[in-house]
Amino acid sequence: MATATLSDLNPAASGTGSLSLGDADFQFLRDFVYQHCGISLGEQKRQLVQGRLLRRLRALGLKDFSGYCELLRRDPDGELGELASVISTNVTSFFREMHHYDLLVEELLPRWLEAKKQSGRLRIWSAGCSTGEEPYALAMVLAEALERTGSKVDARILATDLSPQALETARAGTYAMERMGGVSDARRNRWFLRGEGAYEGLAQVHPRLRELVTIQPLNLLHDWPMRGPFDAIFCRNVVIYFDKPTKQRLFERYAGLLEQGGYLFLGHSESMYGLSDSFELVGRTVYRKRMS
Q1: Which of 86, 147, 153, 287 could disulfide-pair with 264, CB 3.0 to 4.6 Å?
Q2: Predicted confidence band at 89 (pLDDT cuts at 50, 70, 90)?
Q3: CA dist., res. 281 & res. 273, Å (int)
Q4: Which strands make up the sheet holding 286-289, listed edge to edge?
């Protein structure tokens, strides 16, 4: 999946210009980002934030960082998504951490489709979907399972992210061919439309996949409009920079939206150890909601 992580870019390469991010403004930004995004900005990130935000200041026509902080005070919700895009780096790819997809294909999807038969509903949530590679990869294996079984189950994938820029790419569903290294040739031929002429080197996801995926903006730390229940939630490489209390709250909220025995998939460097009693580890970064 999708990773929204703070970058370790070389500050010297960030183009800091002549403006400097002062102590008071940086402290405000640290507090704001933690409150609204759950990410702790250490002092070592000051130059990165300064360099990244200079581009945003120019786009908004602001003269200094104090003006930007004032904008956040006046309209925190209106600028939050752009700020998240500025301070985060979306790192993702198709079929990243392939063992998760293998579990879906070989065990979970056949079991769910059989249990739900003709009248059930199946829901998967890609929480932190970034530019869309994860939900579309999920859509491929789901569509294939539906075709293979002839199932009439009402199956959908919800894909959410905070970044407007990432969501714009996800909604377009168009990717450079070099970004599709994780997709087999068979799946490229089946699930992508190749561009020609001015669109040479690009591929767009098949309309069938787009039918399965609903893409919406969502801040994981704010209210959630959906009620569930979900059969599986993918939240991979998203919570790694959250502090312990934020992770604990998030995992309990996930448990509340999952079916009994539903699955939560985390990233390769993430763990739920000591953070929740609602789940049991059943595979490599795969957790199942305990039966109540």
Answers
A1: 287
A2: low
A3: 9
A4: 213-217, 154-161, 121-127, 230-235, 258-266, 286-289, 279-283
Helix (H) or strand (E) holding 88: none
Mean pLDDT of 227-231: 94
d(CA 128, CA 90): 9
Bridge partners of residue 89, in order along the sequence: 5
Catalytic residues: 52, 161
Residue 15 pLDDT exceeds 80: no
Contact residues for 259 (Cβ-Cβ < 8 A; gap 6+): 228, 229, 230, 231, 289
Share of the chain above pLDDT 90, in %: 69
The whole-number pLDDT of residue 2 equals 44
Question: Could you tell me the CA-to-CA distances from 197 to 50, 65, 84, 174 in Å, in that order?
Answer: 40, 44, 35, 15
- Average pLDDT, integer, range 237-266: 93
Q: Pull the structure tokens for residue 99.
A: 């063992």
Tokens of 278: 């609602």
Per residue in 171-195, pLDDT (tens digit) is 999 999 999 989 999 999 999 999 9
Residue with tokens 């059989």: 114
Q: Give the length of the chain.
A: 292
What is the 8-class DSSP label of residue 195?
Answer: P
Structural domains of the chain sorted by starting position, each given as residue range(s) with its CATH number in brackets: 3-90 (1.10.155.10), 93-289 (3.40.50.150)
